[in-house]
Design goal:
alpha+beta, 679 residues, 16 strands, 27 helices, 3-stranded antiparallel beta sheet, 6-stranded mixed beta sheet
Length: 679
């Protein structure tokens, strides 16, 4: 489970928080060396996107063996990059390869508005790993005509078949993930997890007939396969060596085997071995064995996430998107924040949950602040700021979980410049001053509480199935909202000060509550076009949490809606009562999850999380026009350059920074383009 920076709009708004031949082109990309005090975090901005850089603090303190491990894991992650592109949409690789050929080879007039629009479209497609917006899921509309693209293709002698060409401009496959009520969500989603004629009923029937060998340890059926119909019969195409995406997976395996050779310890090496076996066989029992071993392997300075994991892109929550995050432990911050893991049982015991929904023993919750060394797939260019894995409830209950906060990513967001939106949307000077002084620490603590305590909290009732079966398309937003609520509930408690995490718990809690309500009811709407519903799981959960709390507090005016000079503000008048409201909603969301209450989650999400107050939305967009900073941010990755001796042995690994977004994207396509256009 990942926490996108998206929930902390405050950070986004700027007011908080191998074979030698394969590597040759790595050094041809324009780069500059890091680490510098006056580091430039900004790369460029286009459309609604800001591209940033991040540093890797402490790289020079790693041993050469540790640096090799990071290097190999990073190469493994990038080797699967094309998998994510193909998962996002079946025509993506065809379209990307054609557009990149035009972008690199066109020598005609580049001073025209059409060419400028083409460049912007190319960059937007790169950023989203496909032709659908990375956040809204809407198909990205080109600012040029089909005739102009035909001219570009003709001038560069590039071919693109009719269906792939037409879909850039027509209304077909308009939504990558369609979670609308009253439609067949699988059939109406363009994401390439299912054949074009597979329905939601097909999926539910297919997996409803499967029974795990051990019902207490249910296998993650559907996680690593595409479900298609062949001659009317449903069939899985498994992601594995020799199977679907086999060419890229073989490259991943090659690098993971090199990583295993330089593992820091036996537990880490054994886990890597199981991951390699999983990629070779596609066996879901091996996947569970790997997750158990990976969760237990907590020693060492290096860790990683790699495989088909998060299910947000599947409209019915079965299939995992490919992602990779390579991490280096931030020793100082991890030591400070480990106190949450050590006190996880206290938080569980003192939560407002029903007693039967509390865990008697919260086990194995590890929390670290890490510095990212490289990301790929679903984690790049748009990245989470926190991750809690594994996702299987039984593993979390029996073995535990790993929670990480991506420290250098958060640092990059915080230092990439301010947009000034805060003053526009805060209710008064007191709210502004609280945010300025305590906003960042509140955001960091919310991330930690969300990941460490939130996702580890609570348990399912005996006999209740996994949430993807019981809560279906609402499972992801319910879980993210539940974890948010755990964080919100404990952010306004003196326990944080007793643990030494804050100096003024009330001020930190107030700042966090102000920011969450302001975001959930107003400022996150800058991401939507007028008339749109809210659809992304995290964004939906922020709205239903905020809107439910607002409604529940109406009688006592807990959250006051203020209109001043034609502008709307939301002012919290009683933080103690809002704390109690968050506790009641947390209790209810855990009940829904524990009991698998589909009708209740449908009423909660559809009633509070999806529909937008159109007057507020129009006002927010109008007020936001004065700010030029893009609402979405993502990253280029540092470039790890392996220097070798005459025998081909790595003698050092240098960290450099890419100077341009397009330079890195073109190099990635050249060096890691292991899949054919059709898969």
């Amino acid at each position: 489970m990942k926490l996108k920076l998206i929930w902390i709009l405050a950070i986004m708004l700027g007011f908080v928080f191998s074979c030698e031949e394969e590597r040759k082109s790595e050094t041809s990309e324009n780069t500059k060396e890091e680490f510098t005090e006056d580091f430039d975090y900004n790369v460029e901005q286009f459309a609604d996107i800001k591209v940033l850089r991040y540093q890797i603090p402490g790289w020079e303190n790693l041993s050469l063996k540790e640096q090799k491990l990071v290097y190999y894991l990073t190469q493994a992650g990038l080797s699967g990059r094309d998998i994510m592109w193909n998962m996002n949409y079946r025509h993506n690789l065809k379209i990307r390869k054609a557009l990149e050929n035009v972008y690199a080879n066109y020598d005609g007039d580049k001073s025209t508005d059409d060419w400028s629009a083409f460049e912007t479209y190319m960059k937007r497609v790169w950023f989203s790993s496909g032709i659908h917006h990375h956040y809204s899921n809407d198909k990205i509309k080109p600012g040029f005509s089909s005739d102009y693209l035909k001219k570009l293709l003709n001038d560069t002698t590039v071919t693109l078949d009719n269906e792939a060409f037409d879909v850039i401009f027509n209304d077909k496959d308009a939504k990558k993930v369609n979670l609308a009520k009253g439609v067949d969500n699988v059939l109406m989603s363009a994401v390439n997890f299912y054949g074009p004629d597979v329905t939601t009923a097909d999926v539910e029937t297919f997996y409803g007939n499967m029974t795990s060998p051990n019902p207490d340890k249910p296998l993650s059926y559907g996680l690593n396969s595409q479900l298609v119909k062949e001659n009317g019969v449903l069939k899985e195409r498994v992601y594995k060596s020799g199977g679907l995406y086999g060419a890229a997976i073989d490259e991943i395996i090659k690098w993971l085997e090199l990583a295993q050779d330089v593992a820091e310890n036996e537990a880490q090496g054994n886990a890597l071995g199981l991951l390699i076996d999983y990629y070779k066989t596609g066996d879901l029992q091996t996947w569970d064995d790997y997750n158990v071993a990976w969760t237990a392997a907590t020693e060492g300075n290096i860790d990683y996430i790699n495989s088909f994991i998060e299910v947000y892109n599947d409209p019915v929550g079965y299939r995992g998107s490919y992602e990779s995050i390579v991490q280096i432990k931030d020793f100082d911050m991890s030591e400070k924040m480990a106190v949450l893991s050590e006190n996880a049982q206290w938080f569980e015991d003192n939560s407002p949950l029903m007693e039967e929904h509390k865990k008697d023993s919260v086990v194995g919750v590890t929390y670290k602040v890490v510095n990212v060394a490289g990301e790929a797939g679903d984690a790049s260019p748009s990245t989470p700021i926190g991750v809690n894995l594994p996702n299987a409830n039984w593993i979390r209950a029996a073995v535990g979980s790993k929670s990480v906060s991506l420290g250098n990513i958060i640092e990059a967001y915080n230092n990439a410049g301010s947009s000034g939106r805060l003053k526009e949307f805060v209710h008064d000077d007191e709210e502004y001053e609280l945010e300025e002084k305590y906003g960042q620490v509140g955001d960091k603590l919310h991330t930690a509480l969300h990941e460490v305590i939130g996702h580890a909290s609570g348990q399912l009732n005996p006999g209740v199935g996994e949430t993807k079966q019981t809560l279906k398309k609402y499972a992801s937003t319910l879980e993210e909202g539940r974890a948010d609520l755990v964080g919100l509930y404990y952010l306004y408690t003196p326990k944080l000060q007793e643990l030494g995490l804050v100096d003024d718990w009330k001020s930190v809690g107030k700042a966090a509550y102000d920011g969450y309500i302001r975001n959930g009811l107003m400022t996150q709407l800058i991401r939507l076009k007028i008339g749109d519903d809210v659809e992304e799981a995290h964004m939906v959960n922020r709205q239903w949490v905020s809107a439910w709390a607002y409604e529940q507090g109406m009688e006592d005016n807990v959250i006051e809606k203020v209109t001043r000079d034609g502008k709307t503000y939301f002012n919290i008048t009683n933080y103690e009562k809002l704390h109690a409201i968050f506790g009641r909603l947390l209790k209810e969301t855990q009940r829904i999850k524990s009991e698998g209450d589909f009708k209740a989650v449908e009423a909660l999400v559809e009633g509070y999380g999806v529909k937008v107050d159109q007057a507020i939305h129009a006002e927010v967009l109008e007020r936001n026009k004065q700010f030029t900073s893009a609402p979405y941010s993502g990253f280029v990755n540092p470039v790890l350059v392996a220097e070798k001796d005459d025998n081909g042995e790595i003698t050092s690994i240098k960290v450099t920074q890419p100077e341009t977004f397009d330079g890195q994207m073109l190099r990635y396509s050249k060096d890691y383009g292991f899949l054919p256009s059709e898969n």
